């Protein structure tokens, strides 16, 4: 009995409960249920392989609703002919259910921004890595002796990149762990179920889904620097190595 009480006291001291602050709005490439606070905005710059870059801007309209746009180029830096993505892409999210001690937060959103090169051929019209599209995401956070620990999962359907003939829904999972107040480790898995049919499979650069890892350094409160190691399950017949990317995020209030 004494040992049981000691375990319960330890868990209470470790703070195994809902996080006071909202979880991150995104992991590496997949969303969480977290939203920006009302009156805040975030600017992010993702530096991709082959000189690609994506710039994004999002704003918290309310504590539940955020809206944003992104645009970029697959080869902004380099000496090849400059190519732009065909259009600005949208990022919209609404928090349906708040997270509490027993229930995860649940959000619905749309994100049409894919990654890598964009292929405008009639049979493709898609990014190397498809966008999430419409999604439903769930997040649950706990406090550990080191900091916040978050588990995230969701289901998504890409309704804009279906010319490759694969219209399956998709699943994703991930977690983030604070190692200390400055550093966090992130891991996510995108099952890529919408990249395993006919033309889509010939384009796919992964073996059994996208496994991505990242380290996030929050060296000041409003500025975050991330190092991404993406597509760790890469297909050796199509790409030589996994992707190394950098993302810089700045968050401020109006």
Topology:
Elements lengths: L1 H13 L25 E8 L5 E8 L4 E9 L15 E9 L7 E7 L3 E5 L6 E4 L3 E11 L4 E10 L12 E9 L4 E8 L8 H5 L6 E11 L2 E8 L12 E11 L1
Antiparallel strand pairs: 1-2, 1-14, 2-3, 3-4, 4-5, 5-8, 6-7, 8-9, 9-10, 10-11, 11-12, 12-13, 13-14
Order of helices and strands: HEEEEEEEEEEEHEEE
CATH secondary-structure class:
Mainly Beta
Instruction: Describe the oligomeric state of these chains in a short phrase.
Output: single chain
Binned strand content = over 45%
CATH topology: Porin
Structural class: mainly beta
Task: From the alpha carbons, calculate the radius of gyration and give it in angstroms.
Answer: 19 Å
Helix content: under 10%
| Major sheet: arrangement of strands | 1-2-3-4-5-8-9-10-11-12-13-14
What would CATH call the architecture? Beta Barrel
Mass-distribution shape: globular
CATH superfamily: monomeric porin ompg
Output mean pLDDT: 88
- Distance from N terminus to C terminus (CA atoms, Å) equals 53 Å
Secondary structure tally, helices: 2
Structure in words:
This protein has a single domain (2-253), classed as Porin. The chain starts with a helix and ends with a strand. Helices cover 7% and strands 46% of the residues. It has two helices and 14 strands, in the order αβββββββββββαβββ. The model is unreliable at 1-22 (pLDDT under 50). It has a twelve-stranded antiparallel beta barrel. It has a two-stranded antiparallel sheet with strand order 6-7. It is mainly β and 254 residues long. Strand 6 (115-119) and strand 7 form a beta hairpin.
